[in-house]
Every structure is written in C-alpha cells, then in structure tokens.
C-alpha cells in the first residue's frame, strides 16, 4: 500500500510539473501589442474631446479640424458617408462637396470636419464676423474670439416650431408647402420618435408614389441601408421628404418635381412587405408627418 501511495504522489508531481511548463509557454513575454499603441501628443490618431482623431497617419491635422465644435460644422464619424451626412443635416450632398472643396466625395476621414450649412458672405451662420467680407468659401481662423457663441445655422433662420400640432402653417413661410399624401393606401404604422421615423403606408407593388410638395431631387438610389430604393426631395431650407422601399424610381438627382408628380412605384426593397415609408425632416430632424399632411376623408 505504501508503494502504491508513493506512485500516486509521483504521478501528481509529474502532472503539476507539466502544468507549470505549459503555463510558462502560454504566459505572455511582454505587454500585448495593443498596449503599445497609445498615441502621443501630435501623433496620428490623437483623439479630441469627442474621441475622434484630429490628425492623419502622418501627423498632419485633419481637414477642417480648426472648426471642430463650431455651429454649422460636423465631425465625420465611423461609417459616415457624404450622402448620409447630407440626409441627416438636410442638405444636398453635392452642396456639401462644394462647400468643403472635396476632390472625392467617397473619401472622407474619420475626424474630418465638414461644413454642413451654406456659407453666406456678410452673414455667415458658423463663421466669425471678422471674415464677413471674405469669399463665401473662406474658412474662419481657429479660435477667433469674435464668433458669437449662439449664432444659429442658416437653416434655422425659419419660424420656430411653436405652432400646435394640427394647426395650419402661416402663409408665405417655409412651412407653407400645401402638403399632400404621397400614397393612397392604408396607414399601417404611425410616427414613433424611437422606432419609426415616419409613416408606413400600405399598397400594391407598382402603386404610384407622389411628391408631397414641390421640390428638387437630392437623392435617388439604394445606397442608404434600411431604406431600399429611396428618393429624397428638398423643398426649401427647412424641409426634406423621404420615400423608401420603392420598386422603381422615376426621377433623377437634381430634377425639379411638382407636388403630385409620380416619382416612384411602390415596392418592398429592403422591407418585409410592399409599403411606402414616408418621412418629413425639418432642419434635418424627423418630425411627425401627420402634423403637416391634410386630414384624410
């Protein structure tokens, strides 16, 4: 019995020794590479207070970084495209390309700061008064102390949203567009600020989709995930409308359209059924379309 116990003890010693050898093989010999990548001051990828980089790979400041945090400017985030930024800010993507002198709209860098409101000589929305006499595309000097702290963007120079829901907009304002329903089907989903940024209208494949007001096509394509074949119309400096999940698009970018004009055919692209998803965006933010559309009989 003593010999058997001694053999078992030797066996456990062997197992323990093997475990120690294995641990020695798997224990890192130094810090993981990621721990050596902390940026130093002035290096590529140095983050700003927002967590976005402020320099490119060579350490050069990113385009427009001097305007970071100023009203009327937007810092590019991961996954952004010029078209997506244009939709979110209520602008035409080609205007953003022009205002920022972008050579290639498909190549923007995370952390790059873009102008997203029109530059207006003499009354800039996001530029200090010191450069009021400069050309419209001039970029203000960094840190100018003369910039008003609460100067609103140009797009916000429209009447404030103070009218009660369901009331008629004042004639002669950007609110007065004479909206019509973009489709005649049954309403299957209403506006929900958290879940549904517009209205969902039922129909059959090929049913007409109409422009809800006079405007200009600022987007026509399938490049925005979740919307399928999408049309976006710009009506004025305040309002955009979006028409998603179409089967066929009948208009092109930059084309002027009239209220009631057939702009698409209803479909189910990037959707679980045939429907029109319709949004109204006021100064880039989704609002309840039922506040603006006429009551149905």
Can you offer a commentary on this structure?
The chain is an alpha+beta fold. Among the domains are: 76 residues, Roll (Membrane-bound Lytic Murein Transglycosylase D, Chain A), CATH 3.10.350.10; 105 residues, Glucose Permease (Domain IIA) (Distorted Sandwich), CATH 2.70.70. The chain is 13% helix and 20% strand. The protein is built from three helices and twelve strands, in the order H-E-H-H-E-E-E-E-E-E-E-E-E-E-E. The strands form two sheets. Strands 3, 4, 5, 6, 7, 8, 9, 10, 11 and 12 form a ten-stranded antiparallel beta sheet that branches. The longest helix has 25 residues. It is elongated, with a radius of gyration of 28 Å. It starts with a helix and ends in a 10-residue tail after the last strand. About 28% of the residues have low confidence.
Question: Short description, anyone?
Answer:
By secondary structure, the chain is α+β, with helices and mostly antiparallel strands.
Overall, the morphology is: elongated
Radius of gyration (CA) equals 28 Å
Structural class: alpha+beta
What integer is the average pLDDT?
74
Q: What is the assigned CATH homologous superfamily of the domain at 187-291?
A: Glucose Permease (Domain IIA)
Sequence of secondary-structure elements: HEHHEEEEEEEEEEE
- Main beta-sheet annotation: 10 strands, antiparallel
The end-to-end distance, rounded to whole angstroms, is 99 Å
CATH topology assignment of the domain at 187-291: Glucose Permease (Domain IIA)
Give the helix tally: 3
Counting DSSP E segments of at least 2 residues, the number of strands comes to: 12
CATH class category label of the domain at 187-291: Mainly Beta
Estimated share of beta-strand residues: 15-25%
Identify the CATH architecture of the domain at 187-291.
Answer: Distorted Sandwich
